[in-house]
Amino acid sequence: MEVINVTAAIIERDNRYLIAKRKGKHFAGKWEFPGGKIEAGETPEVCLRRELREEFGIESLVRYFFEEGSFENENIRIRLLGYRVDYLSGEFQLKTHEEIRWVYPHELGHYDFAPADIPLVRRLQNR
Known about the structure:
7-stranded mixed beta sheet, 7 strands
């Protein structure tokens, strides 16, 4: 079984968290914390900074590991590493997502999240 390591950014602003709606073929229409696949030789922190720059055109600072999630089917296992991240600069541009929203923790349950993101959602709701 193939294991894919991916990252997710937990970005907070005014007590709300950034979530993004996926487009494409895998989990299209589901919500997620933005991030992406860790490339060979890349640390999770470097991956997150790169992905946020590529997907949204923003600069960020990765603070610390927050929570891990996973998803598995008969062919693949996704290991999601969530980190607390500070937004530093740049205008948010939608390059790989349908939309973004800033939501309060108690609102997270109103969104249909990708399976690997659900442990991160639960932890934020229980803070």
